[in-house]
Amino acid sequence: MIHKYALNEYKIVLDTNSGAVHLFGEAPYEMLDYLDEDNVPENPPEAMMNAMKGRYSENVLLEAYGEIRELYQKGQLFSPDGYEKFASMLQGAPIKSMCLNIAHDCNLRCEYCFAAQGDFGGARMLMPFEVAKSAINFLIEKSAKRHNLEVDFFGGEPLMNFDVVKQTVQYARSLEKAHGKNFRFTITTNGILLDDDKIDFINREMSNCILSLDGRKSVNDRLRVRADGSGSYDSIVPKFQKLVAGRSRDRDYYVRGTFTKYNLDFTKDIQHMLDLGFREISMEPVVSDERLDYSVKEEDLPKIFEEYETLSNLIIQRRKKGRGFDFYHFMIDLNQGPCAIRRLRGCSCGNEYVAITPTGDIYPCHQFVGHEEWKMGNVLDGTLDLKEKNRFSLINVYSKPECRNCWAKFYCSGGCNANNWQYEGDLCKPHSITCALEKKRLECAIMVQAALADQH
Question: Cα dist. 179→173, 239, 256, 416 in Å?
Fold first, then answer.
């Protein structure tokens, strides 16, 4: 299986199964339309040569076919699928990462919030330390022999329960040596409650922090508002700048935005973030009911595709001038890439990753929280539905009919299971708009790497 496309001046060919990426000239690029992926014979097919000889000389055609034949023999073009036979063998694995919904409350009322503006459709509450403590104990127990564990402090707004965040970190650190574990902490915040104490703690203890900002003030303050309807931009930007300035190089961060129908020109928001001094940026498409005014719809895809190309060119231009930045969705490894299991089932929600609510309930991930039918157990009594956990372990690109023969399947790993269920009604049916955007981002990401390699 291959995917060929032209973007900017590049003719790019991706071999799905091997992961090999090639830049082709015009003749070999056109030849691929005449070849059957199950058979690239030693001699060029006569029908193909006759069809193309009016545009290329015989020597050019023979040389082009020789290139294709050599890649085919190396297993880098029309390569066989070596993954499907392992898909049915996937089993449940020890839990390695946990989302702690430390606060089911928020001081913002962002209109597009998937968490129902912080309370996940239930009562507003903060997680008691005893629940967080039980969650850490649960993670240590269920992680078996795994050494590296990840905990993400999430909400709502986790800074509303910052004392428990600090207590939880201290408690987990106190257990590391005795249990042979290493905790890596992450926090996601809207920044409203940041102060010097919180910034110092986050920069010391959090391996990564996600800072929510949608970009330009007019864009951010349209949807990211307080309970009284006022915007958040003026309050949070100076605090984010101070936090980022104080982070050491071994500490990651992302300024994470959401684009909606209102800012399909989101490259301008990314440029604004760059002007503010941020260099690690994520800009996510809103995922929502298409009936809502701000929702991204099928009709918006051409404009968004064009915008991703605009963003690609901005990345290339800045890298050439020595002012590069990282855009989360374009950061793919074309050399080794993710391990085979990650390629097959992606984030491993409900299997290696779970979310914990303030009452200790366990869900497959933070986006299932609030939907009682997905409750898997509770950390306070140590219960865990292993049948459900095993069900999630078997969800992969081969259990999703629309993904089996998709060229992008080993990069998106079948998309977000929660989004698939919420908007398509089936864990194994990819959300169509998200799927289309993922493919375009992947095309742009590969082109960016080709362009940057070409300048060397």
Answer: 10, 36, 34, 32
Task: Write the secondary structure of 37-73 as one string of H (helix), E (strand) and C (coil).
Answer: CCECCCCCCHHHHHHHCCCCCHHHHHHHHHHHHHHHH
Helix (H) or strand (E) holding 185, with range, is: strand 182-189
Q: Chain-centre distance of CA 284, in angstroms?
A: 9
HEC string of 318-333?
A: HHHCCCCCEEHHHCCC
Residue 166 CB partners (closer than 8 Å, separation 6+): 201
CA–CA distance, 429 with 425 (Å, rounded to integer):
8
Look at residues 100, 109, 104 and name the one whose alpha carbon lies nearest to residue 124: 104
Report d(CA 235, CA 332) in Å as an integer.
34
- Taking residue 247's Cβ as centre, other Cβ atoms within 10 Å add up to 18
Tell me how far CA of residue 72 lies from CA of 3, 75, 78, 336, 426, in angstroms. 15, 5, 6, 19, 37
Of 8, 58, 18, 51, nearest to 33 by C-alpha is: 51
- The upper half-sphere exposure of residue 320, i.e. CA atoms within 13 Å in the direction of its Cβ, equals 14
- What distance in Å separates the CA atoms of residue 23 and residue 143, rounded to the nearest whole number? 43
- Kindly report the CA angle at 434 between 432 and 440, in degrees rounded to 5? 105
Query: Rounded to 10 degrees, what is the CA torsion of 96, 102, 108, 110?
Result: 40
- 130 neighbors 116 (Cβ within 8 angstroms): no
Q: Cis peptide leading into 122, omega within 30 of 0? A: no
> Is it the case that residue 20 has pLDDT exceeding 60?
yes
Indicate if the pLDDT at residue 341 is higher than 90.
Answer: no
Average pLDDT of every residue of the chain: 92
As a dihedral over the C-alpha atoms of residue 255, residue 256, residue 259, residue 263, rounded to 10 degrees, the angle is -10
Cα 29 from chain centre: 30
For the segment 60-112, what is each residue's pLDDT rounded down to a tens digit?
999 999 999 999 999 999 998 888 877 777 777 899 999 999 999 999 999 88
Least confident of 9-23, 360-374, 375-389, 402-416: 402-416
Parallel, antiparallel or unpaired: strands 97-101 and 353-356: parallel
Residue 420: count of CB within 10 angstroms of its CB: 23
Question: If 0-12 CB within 10 Å is exposed, 13-18 middle and 19+ buried, where does residue 230 land?
Answer: exposed
Residue 438 burial (C-beta neighbours within 10 Å; 0-12, 13-18, 19+): buried
